[in-house]
Amino acid sequence: MLTFVGLGLYDERSVTVAGREAIEAADRVFAEFYTSHLVGADVPDLERYHDATIEVRDRAGVEQDPAPILDAATAGDAVFCTAGDPMISTTHVDLRLRAHERGIETRVVHGTTAQTAASSLSGLQNYRFGKATTLPFERAHGGDGVPDSVVDTLDENRERGLHTLVYLDIKAADDDYMSASTAAALLADDYEDTLAVAVCRAGSPESTVTADRLSALATREFGPPLHLLVVPGDLHLLERDALAALADAPADPLAELTD
Q1: Under 8 Å CB-to-CB from 61, ≥6 apart: which residues?
Q2: Quick one: pLDDT band at residue 140, thresholds 50, 70, 90?
Q3: pLDDT category, 192, cuts 50, 70, 90?
Q4: CB within 8 Å of 75: residues ≥ 6 apart
Q5: Which residues contact 90 (CB under 8 A, 6 or more apart)?
Q6: Consecutive H or E run containing 199
Q7: Using CA atoms, how far apart are residues 68 and 215, in angstroms rounded to an integer?
Q8: Residue 56's pLDDT is what?
């Protein structure tokens, strides 16, 4: 059996009860933290909380050399952990399919995702989100500014009146996380007066939500990671009121987006 467990968004306590039970029952526990990271806990914290040895795999050890994980799942019960949910932004469908090819039974224990948290914290309605995108560090894509793929996604969603969730680049191996202010500065070159929402440390006791024009967000400090941005599309009256009350959004850009 290979069980995929989402650890949630912040620390060792963010996992669901079902996820914790799966980890405790496993013969071997694997994890990866290259796609995302629990900023409120490290591997020793997780091992103490779950009373388990956690074998951390890098990207090559999951995508190119998954045999140790699959062999463990063939021999007994193996768990594969990720931050967030293992099949959403940190998708590991390929690993699950490899398990099925070997006749290994699989199941998924879901965790809270950044997308659901962003919607919940901001008051923006989940069904009004369009395609999500990821904003990379400039050095990561070998160019200046914002990649065309990000601009295309934003433009397409805005034309349809839909919100855009913008994941911010993570280089976990270098302990480097793009901040909401850096992301806002990059996007402000093309969308200076556009309203955006900075969602910071979702899932933690110190989560914050701040809405303003991108040019204004670019000048602010938002504290420790993880951060993400939401660029709203057309706003329902309830969403407008939520951004004003929960994210201190200024009145003028709210009025521009309200149905």
Answers
A1: 32, 68
A2: low
A3: confident
A4: 27
A5: 32, 35, 36, 82, 83, 84
A6: strand 195-200
A7: 48
A8: 97
Please report the pLDDT score of residue 180 as a whole number: 97
Between the CA atoms of 9, 13, 15 and 20, what dihedral angle is there, to the nearest 10 degrees?
160
Give the pLDDT band of residue 37 (cuts 50, 70, 90). confident
Do 158 and 206 lie in one domain? The reply is yes
Domain limits for position 135 = 114-257
- Supply 59's token pair: 């990207």
Residues in the chain, total = 259
- The tokens of 124 are what? 């923006």
Indicate the SS3 state at residue 26.
coil
Mean per-residue pLDDT, 154-175: 90
Residues 38 and 136 in one domain: no
Report the run of H or E that residue 48 belongs to, with start and end.
helix 43-50
